[in-house]
Amino acid sequence: MLTFVFYKALAHPTRIKILDLLKNGEKCVCNIIEELSLEQSNVSQHLNVLKNQGIVASRREGTFVMYYVLNPKIYDLIDTTDEILEMQLETTQKELRKRRNKI
Hints:
14% strand; 5 helices
């Protein structure tokens, strides 16, 4: 069940985009909002999902809230997922080419 909840936290494009933004280090939530061009409430909801699963954490710096990734291995997981999806796409493309050649 824990694995399911963890993966569910990653199962939204906005959350993956947030993690991509945090790949090079922490960012102020204000910068995340600006770069995603989303409403503050929407970004906050996504950050809370990631935070509740221990994927990101935050700290205060004066009036700013800074977010950062707790474990960089999350990027290994995302990269592996991307590789699997690329392989699946290649397989599908090959199958479609075979099908076209039979017609």
